[in-house]
Amino acid sequence: MVDAATWAAVQSLAAEYWRRVDGLADAPVDALFIDAGWMDYGPIRCDGRAQIAKFYADRAVREAEARSTTRHLFSNLLIEPVTNGRVRVFSTVHVMAGKGDWPLPARAPSVVGDFEDVVVEAEPGVWRYEGRRARIVFVAEPVR
């Protein structure tokens, strides 16, 4: 079991990650990873912050051009200690997505996935992703 300060810091890291992914914060997503960080989202693999930065910059352009909005909701957060300053994090993510002007029609989540992350204390009190792995469990039919 992790202490309360670690739990709060890791939960805040996850919340900030999804805020940035959804365009609700101006800060870059890759800054939440260590330099050698990685992402494995099935067909998408990024190694290092430069590749992660490019992936999210390209995603932002695609979403702006398509007038897309996403909201990622994470739940079932479980944090397991690995070693001092290193934890494994499990969560479930539900994705709501739509195109056009707000408010968008509500539909079932477009994707539900399980995440397994490795998070490290990059410096005292500052936690960052070493890696994130997603396994997609459900995918809705495309919105037309």
TrEMBL record:
Organism of this sequence: Cupriavidus numazuensis
Q: What is this protein called?
A: SnoaL-like domain-containing protein
CDD domains, alphabetized: NTF2_like
Q: SnoaL-like domain: from which residue to which, for each copy? A: 8-132
Q: Which InterPro entries match?
A: NTF2-like_dom_sf, SnoaL-like
